[in-house]
Each structure stands twice: as structure tokens, then as C-alpha cells.
């Protein structure tokens, strides 16, 4: 092979490498600039929207803002927030939820189900884990929706957000020590039937559950997990909850 041709190949490779390096540097600077701009913008957001994490998405110049409540989308300018579903049809992933679960999903097999009220409905094949405060209105609403779901095993971990509901922990203990804890739980959340005072009459795990909530950063109720360990905070509509329960990973 002529030396000149070799030199031309070498120069071509060097030029390509140089161009590629410049492109990477510019791209990195652009990403850095974009996230810096987003950081400036989010300073004015209300507390419930301020993120712990800013993640890129497969779409250029589109990012997700995630905190324990959920994820929303934001453009690189930091001007436009997009609150809603954006689906990658190639792998059927919800882009915002995918980034959210990267940070907040858990391994549900590590949950001590002996600390939960267990209700088996129908064939019990599907599984849902619920962390709920009995005095939380949203938890009461969720319980009503759960009544319409069949073929599931529900593990409910009674707890209490004492700063919001001062008697919730005691109520959870009273329910646990009832003759039929699942029935007592549902009677209280759905009908307001207060359990008898039995908090010290049995061994109950409510204090342990409070420690679990700290471990998994469960500071809003209800917080629910499906069999994949995916997290949802709040009360989905029935159809959305069914979809969440049936979720499988598309990795």
C-alpha cells in the first residue's frame, strides 16, 4: 500500500477522532448548560414540584424532574413543564415513570409481610403492598377502591403520620389487636367504626412499621407497591390501579 494512502487514512482517522471529541465536548457542555438552566428555573417551583433528581430522557432536550411524589417532564430551557404520560412505543415504557422508579422502587421481597394485615381476594395471585394511615382521607378513599379489585392478595402495613393525625398510631395498634384485624381496619376506614382500645393487649408491629417507613422514605400516604416494587404515592383511579398491579418490567 502506498505511503501516501496510509498517511491519508491516518489523517482521516485523526480528523474523525478530533471531530468526534469536539462533538462529545460540545454535547457535554450543552447538557451541562441545559441542566444548569433547569436548576435555575426550578428554584421558583412550589415545594411539591421541586425535584431530588433531574434525569435525561431518550428524547433530546427533554428531562424528568423526580421527587418522592412522582415525576414530571421539563424541556431544556426550563420553561415548559409537561405533566402527563409520554410512552415509548418501542418498549412500551412510560418515560417519566421509568426514571421515577429508578430512584424510588424497592425490592418488595424484603418487606416483612408478617407486619401487614393480609387479605386474600379471589385466587389471590396478584399482589399489592399498601402503607396506610387509618386517619388519612386519601387512605380511606383508596380502601374504597380496593373493595372493587379481585384476585389479589393485599398486604396493608398500618402506620401513622403523627404530625398530621396524632391518634393514628394508637388507632393502628387498636385495630391490629382486634379479634379480626382486617375486618376492623376496613370497618374503620370505610364506615368510621372505631376499634376498642386494645393497643397494649397484644404484640403488634406498628412501631416496627414506622421504622420501615423511614427506611423506604414513606412519608406520604397512601404509598403502594406492586409485585415489581414499583411505587405510587396517592390514590389512582380504579383502571390506573389495575394497570399498576398488572405492571411487568420491559427491560
From TrEMBL:
Record's subcellular location: Periplasm
Residues of the Disulphide bond isomerase DsbC/G N-terminal domain: 33-96
InterPro entries: DiS-bond_Isoase_DsbC/G, DiS-bond_isomerase_DsbC/G_N, DiS-bond_isomerase_DsbC/G_N_sf, Thiol:disulfide_interchange, Thioredoxin-like_fold, Thioredoxin-like_sf
Keywords of the record: Disulfide bond, Periplasm, Redox-active center, Signal
Source species, domain of life: Bacteria
Record-annotated Thioredoxin-like fold domain positions: 120-234
GO cellular component, one term: periplasmic space
Chief place of localization: periplasm
Presence of keyword Nucleus: no
Family affiliation: Belongs to the thioredoxin family. DsbC subfamily.
Function, in words: Required for disulfide bond formation in some periplasmic proteins. Acts by transferring its disulfide bond to other proteins and is reduced in the process.
Name the record gives this protein: Thiol:disulfide interchange protein
Amino acid at each position: 500500500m502506498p505511503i501516501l494512502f496510509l498517511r491519508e487514512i491516518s489523517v482521516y482517522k485523526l480528523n474523525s477522532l478530533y471531530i468526534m471529541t469536539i462533538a462529545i465536548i460540545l454535547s457535554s457542555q450543552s447538557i451541562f448548560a441545559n441542566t444548569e438552566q433547569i436548576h435555575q428555573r426550578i428554584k421558583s417551583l412550589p415545594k411539591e414540584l421541586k425535584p431530588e433528581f433531574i434525569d435525561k430522557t431518550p428524547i433530546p432536550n427533554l428531562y424528568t424532574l423526580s421527587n418522592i411524589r412522582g415525576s414530571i417532564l421539563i424541556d431544556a430551557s426550563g420553561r415548559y413543564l409537561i405533566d402527563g404520560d409520554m410512552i415509548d412505543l418501542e418498549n412500551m415504557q412510560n418515560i417519566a415513570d421509568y426514571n421515577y422508579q429508578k430512584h424510588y422502587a424497592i425490592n418488595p421481597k424484603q418487606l416483612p409481610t408478617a407486619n401487614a394485615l393480609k387479605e386474600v381476594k379471589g385466587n389471590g395471585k396478584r399482589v399489592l403492598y399498601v402503607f396506610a394511615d387509618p386517619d388519612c382521607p386519601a387512605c380511606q378513599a383508596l380502601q374504597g377502591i380496593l373493595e372493587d379489585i379481585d384476585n389479589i392478595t393485599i398486604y396493608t402495613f398500618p402506620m401513622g403520620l403523627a404530625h398530621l393525625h396524632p391518634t393514628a398510631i394508637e388507632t393502628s395498634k387498636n385495630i391490629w389487636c382486634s379479634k379480626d384485624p382486617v375486618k376492623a381496619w376496613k370497618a374503620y376506614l370505610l364506615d368510621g367504626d372505631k376499634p376498642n382500645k386494645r393497643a397494649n393487649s397484644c404484640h403488634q408491629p406498628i412501631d416496627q412499621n414506622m421504622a420501615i417507613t423511614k427506611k423506604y422514605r414513606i412519608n406520604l400516604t397512601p404509598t403502594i407497591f406492586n409485585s415489581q416494587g414499583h411505587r405510587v404515592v396517592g390514590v389512582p383511579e380504579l383502571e390506573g390501579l389495575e394497570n399498576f398491579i398488572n405492571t411487568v418490567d420491559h427491560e
